[in-house]
Amino acid sequence: MNTQKTNHTAYLLFATFFIVVAVVILKTFLFGLLWGAVMAVSIWPLYERTTGSSGLLGKLPAGLSASLMSGLFALVFLGPMADGIYELASAYSAGSSYLTQNSVQGVVAPPSFIQHLPFGDKVAKFWVDNIGSSSGLVDVLNKLSNGKLLAFVPLLWGQVMDKMLTSIVMLVSFYFMLKHGRTVKSRYTAVLVHWVGERSVRYINSAIEALRGTINGVVLVGAVEGMLLAVPLVMGGVTAGLLIGLAAGLLGVIPLLMPLLMLPCLGYLYLAGQTTWAVAGAIDLALVWFVFENVVKPQVIGHKVRINTYLILMSMVGGVQLVGLVGLFLGPAFVAVALGMLKDLALVEDDLPGAG
User: What percentage of the chain reaches a pLDDT higher than 70?
Assistant: First the structure.
C-alpha cells in the first residue's frame, strides 16, 4: 500500500515537472489559449443545442461545425478589433499627412471653434506657436511624453501585432475546445473525482456556471450599453464612434474607463457645434454608467454567480488587475468557488453533505 502511494506521488511530481516546463515554453501564447477556452466554455450550451441531433448543425462532422462556429465567433468578436486597427492606421496616415503638409506649407491656421473658447486669442496664439507647425507639434508631444515620442509608434504597432497574434491563438484554441468539447466534458468529472474528490466536481461546475454568467452579463449588457453610448457619437459625426461606444460599454466595469472614453468625445461634439448630440450623449452616459453599469449588470451576473453584487464588482476589477482583461471573467468564478469551499470548511465534519 505504501509502495503504491509512493509511486502515485512520484508520478504526480514527474507529471507536474513536464506540465510546468510546457507552460513556460508556451507562456507567450497562454493568454490566447486561455481566452479561447473561456469563450468556448461560455457558449458551450448554445453549441450543444446547435450541433445536437435536432440542431441546425446536427448532421455535420464535429470539425466542420466547430469551424463554422469559430468563423461566426471571429466575425462577431474579432470584427470590432479589426475595425479598431483600421481606424488606428487611418489616424496614423492622417497624422503623417498633417506633418508633411506643415513641413511644405508652413503654419496651419487654428480651427474655427477656438475663437468661441474662453481666452480664445491666447489659445489661438498657442496653436500658431506650438501646434500649427510640425516642428512645434513634435516638440510639444516630446515634452509631454518625456522624450519618448519617437519610440511610441513602434511600441504601439508592436502591441497591435501582439494582440493580433493573441487573437489568432484564441481562435485556434476556441476551435479545438469546441471540436473536442464532448470528450473533455465526459472525462473531467472522472479526473476530478480521482485526483481531488467528489466535492470538487460540484465546485468546478459552479465555477463554470459563474464564468458563463459573468461573460453573458458583461457581453450582453455591455453590448446594449455600447450601442446606447455609440448612438450620439455616430449621429454627431465622431470618427470610430461605434467602436468607442462598444469599447466603453464592454469594458465599463474597469473603474472610470467609460467616462474617460466618452467625455473627450462629448467635448469634441460640443466644440464642433453638435450641442444636441453632446447633451444627449451626456444624459446617455449618466444613465448607462449609474444605472446599467452599477445596478443592471451586477444583477444579471449575480443571478448566475450567486454571490454579493458588490463582491462581484470587486472580483471583476481585482481579476483585471491580477491577470489582465481575461480576469474580468475569471475573477467572479474563482471567488464563487472560494466562497463555497469556505462554507464547507466552516462546517463540522459530521454536518458535511454525505457524512455519517
Answer: 72
CA distance 174 to 36: 4
Please count the other Cβ atoms lying within 10 Å of the Cβ belonging to residue 158: 10
Residue 142 or residue 355, greater confidence:
142
Over 50: is that where the pLDDT of 354 sits? no
> Read out DSSP for 88-150?
HHHHHHHHHHHHHHHHHH-PPPPPGGGGGSTTHHHHHHHIIIIISSHHHHHHHHHHHTTT-HH
Residue 196, classed as helix, strand or coil, is coil
Question: Whole-model pTM?
Answer: 0.64
The pLDDT tens digits for 29-63 are: 888 888 888 888 888 888 888 887 777 777 788 88
**Comparing C-alpha atoms, which of 346, 347, 320 is closest to residue 334?**
320
Asked if 244 contacts 83 with a C-beta cutoff of 8 angstroms, the reply is no
**Dist. CA 326–CA 28, nearest whole Å:** 15
d(CA 140, CA 144): 6
Cell of 308: 454579493
Give the residue carrying C-alpha cell 493580433: 164
Contact of 201 with 189, CB cutoff 8 Å: yes
Cell of 109: 491656421
List pLDDT tens digits, range 196-253.
777 778 888 878 888 887 887 777 788 888 888 889 988 988 877 888 888 888 777 7
CA-CA distance, 201 to 219, in Å (whole number)? 27
Question: What does the radius of gyration of the chain's CA atoms come to, in whole angstroms?
Answer: 26
Give exposure, 109-142, as e/b (b: 16+ Cβ within 10 Å). ebeeebeeeeeeeeebebbeeebbbbebbeeebe
Round to the nearest angstrom and report the end-to-end CA distance of the chain: 26
